[in-house]
Design goal:
Elements (H helix, E strand, L loop, with lengths): L2 E6 L6 H12 L3 E7 L1 H6 L9 H11 L4 E5 L4 H9 L3 E5 L14 E5 L7 H7 L3 E6 L3 H10 L5 E3 L11 E4 L3 H13 L3 E5 L6 H13 L4 E4 L6 H11 L6 E9 L18 H17 L5 E10 L4 E10 L4 E7 L8 E5 L3 E4 L8 E5 L7 E4 L7 H14 L8 H15 L4 E2 L1
Parallel strand pairs: 1-2, 1-4, 2-3, 4-5, 6-7, 6-8, 8-9, 9-10, 11-14, 12-19
Antiparallel strand pairs: 11-15, 12-13, 13-14, 15-16, 16-17, 17-18
The protein binds cytidine-5'-triphosphate (CTP).
């Protein structure tokens, strides 16, 4: 029996794929099709698949051409598979000519002519693009606009305050303006992704999310960490019980780059520490321990009392069975790590943990330690844009960051703004 193996993403399955599969099958008696996993695709720069791995597998299965379907998850897997399944022929389309010659050592390599005039990329591009404008200026908008280029199905469109011509808007204005900017955009029928915190009081946050719901619009927090692959995996591993029950979550986020010391009178235009770093620092706390904390104590060192501008703040949460702490600051510098303490072991994420591409599971017995590496492109911003575009397209809020988490972030910031802290 001649076994043939082939690989592909098979996003939005089209007749080019079907013709390839038919010809691959005809090369032998038994066809194994490797469908690339979402993670593997991301690691090789393909972040725009419209369909999930499960949907893509189902589509390949439905052709009835494959005798067996496997998942391709890592670089170098092809050699493993060829050996494991005893494949006699490896085949792919002619767009790959030469790229897989190295497999000749293990089996016969055949490049089949690619079907002209069709590809998943073209099918994805045919869908109307989501035009996203930006509000606010500076570095954040520039980064967001740059990252949009890497995401299929979205395009940047410059807009003025009328927001004409855009379907959605990225809000990165001063936090004091978020409420007005977000409300204005929602009233104009635009979907919104807003730098967290979306509002500075719980009442206003509730009002905005109710407005979005009423108008069937997407409103999400922009916290890039929430959308990165490594961070999502970290949450799953931490919740899987591998480190036992979680008893403490401790993190720090600090930066001196914004020049708050030199700002002088300009401090008014800058974000204070609790707004700039609070949302990111509270993210793993609320996502791992929930939002039903018993108490939250805030200790702060103010740079300017009148403006409520904190240079350094420490948040201490007590939950029923766990505690958490976050140190944040724009006028202090410390190691930006995240440690999740469990009853059986802990997870360590080195600085800067909010740009996670790597984490470690550590145990009493170091031979049990595990390291996890992931690819992080564009600081996670492009994954956030992909997630936002998908939410808009499907009309569903995202599972990355639920509303209770966004609301609790706003709650803590409101508590701070009401002066409920201990000053040092
Ligand atoms: N293929 C083909 N003819 C096409 C498109 C794809 O023969 N018109 C083949 C590819 O060479 C590959 C397999 O189908 O062997 C799976 O390709 P995949 O990368 O999933 O599809 P593309 O349409 O090329 O996707 P993209 O546009 O995202 O690169």
């Amino acid at each position: 029996m001649v076994k043939v193996i082939t690989y592909g993403t098979y996003d939005l399955l089209h007749y080019g794929h079907i013709r390839l599969l038919e010809r691959a099958k005809a090369l032998g008696d038994y066809l194994i099709v490797g469908v690339t996993s979402d993670d593997y695709d991301k690691s090789r720069g393909k972040i725009n698949n419209q369909q999930s791995l499960m949907e893509r597998i189902a589509a390949v299965k439905a052709t009835g051409i494959a005798d067996e379907i496997i998942v391709e998850e890592y670089e170098g897997q092809k050699i493993d598979d060829i050996r494991r399944y005893g494949a006699d022929i490896f085949t792919v389309g002619s767009d790959w000519v030469g790229k897989f010659d190295y497999l000749n050592e293990y089996c016969k390599v055949v490049y089949l002519p690619r079907t002209e005039g069709i590809s998943s990329s073209e099918l994805r591009a045919e869908k109307r693009k989501l035009a996203i404008g930006t509000i606010g200026n500076g570095l954040l908008c520039q980064k967001f606009i740059r990252e949009m280029q890497f995401v299929n199905g979205v395009e940047y469109r410059a807009c003025d305050s009328s927001l004409e011509g855009v379907d959605a808007v990225y809000v990165a204005s001063h936090p004091e303006r978020h409420y007005d900017d977000v409300r204005g955009a929602l009233l104009k029928g635009k979907h919104v992704i807003c730098e967290s915190p979306v509002a500075l009081s719980a009442a206003r946050y509730r009002e905005l999310s109710a407005l979005a719901r009423e108008k069937s619009l997407i409103l999400i927090d922009s916290i890039k960490t929430a959308y990165s692959t490594a961070y999502s995996r970290l949450l799953l591993v931490a919740k899987s019980g591998r480190i036992g029950e979680i008893v403490s979550v401790d993190c720090a986020c600090t930066s001196l780059a914004d020049g708050v010391f030199e700002a002088g009178k300009d401090l008014r235009s800058k974000q204070n520490s609790i707004c700039a770093w609070g949302p990111t620092a509270m993210l793993p706390i609320f996502q791992l321990l929930g939002t039903e904390y018993r108490s939250c104590r805030i200790v702060t060192r103010l740079l300017n009392r009148e403006l409520g501008f904190d240079g350094f703040t420490k948040l201490d949460f007590v939950f029923d069975k766990a505690v958490a702490s976050a140190r944040i600051g724009k006028a202090a510098k410390t190691e930006g790590e995240l440690v999740i303490t469990g009853t059986k072991g802990y997870i360590y994420v080195p600085a800067p943990w909010w740009k996670t591409d790597y984490f470690e599971l550590r145990f009493e017995d170091p031979t049990q330690n595990q390291r996890h590496f992931y690819q992080l492109d564009g600081e996670g911003i492009r994954y956030e844009i992909v997630a936002f575009a998908k939410a808009v397209e499907s009309g569903k809020q995202l599972f990355y960051l639920d509303e209770s988490c966004s609301r609790s972030i706003v709650d803590v910031i409101e508590t701070f703004r009401n002066g409920n802290y201990t000053e040092i």
